[in-house]
Amino acid sequence: ASPDAVSRGMARTRPMSSRRRVRIVAPSSPFDPEKLAAGVERLKGAGFTVDTEDVHRPGHPFLNGTDDERRRELVSALEDPSVDIVWLARGGYGLTRFVHRVRFPTQCPIVVGFSDATALLGPAFNSGCTAVHGPLATTLADEPEESFEHLMAILERRARGRTLDGLSPIA
């Protein structure tokens, strides 16, 4: 990304507070509660306060609740000024059903996830939020230590870019 794109992506992101508060949301498919608990423990071990209130809504085989429930949960997390990071629990399917109705606040938290969350990362970045294509909360416990440490450096803005020398365009 160009320096302009990087600075534009961070322009409206709230600075990380000393609370280091993460709100886990599940706007896509249902998830394994044990995997989420393991991811939450890893985040707590790294010094984060983690909120998982109302994140698990069993009862639907393919979605973690109705479109309105999942959208309200996501928007509530994005708009909560005490939240530093909105972390997606799982990918799968469902976010694309309502992402076009999500509006980002003027000052927004960092958004982390991949898979179905990728549909959210583009609009988040285009709205001026920092969007991190990174592990889901349910995959954090399995993340290798080096990868987890680099992710922490990204979130804490300590990460340095890498140069890939010797690459040539594909013809």
Total strands: the figure is: 5
Class by SSE composition: alpha/beta
Give the strand line-up of the largest sheet. 2-1-3-4-5
Principal-axis shape: globular
Number of helices: 5
Radius of gyration: 16 Å
- Unreliable segments (pLDDT under 50, ≥5 consecutive)? 1-11
Largest pleated sheet: 5 strands, parallel
Determine the fraction of residues in helical runs and give it as a percent range: 25-40%
**What is the mean predicted local confidence, pLDDT?**
88
What order do the SSEs take from the amino end to the carboxyl end, as H and E? HEHEHEEHEH
The rounded distance between the terminal residues' Cα atoms is 21 Å
**β-strand amount:** 5-15%
Task: Tell me what you see in this structure.
α2 (33-45) links the parallel β1 and β2 (49-51). Residues 1-11 have low confidence and may be disordered. This protein has a five-stranded parallel sheet, sandwiched between helices. The two termini are 21 Å apart. The protein is of the alpha/beta class and 171 residues long. Helices cover 32% and strands 11% of the residues. The protein is built from five helices and five strands.
Task: Summarize the entry for a quick read.
This protein is an alpha/beta fold and 171 residues long. Helix content is 32%, strand content 11%.
How are the secondary structure elements laid out?
Elements: H1 3-10, E1 21-25, H2 33-45, E2 49-51, H3 67-79, E3 85-88, E4 110-113, H4 118-126, E5 131-133, H5 145-155
Parallel strand pairs: 1-2, 1-3, 3-4, 4-5
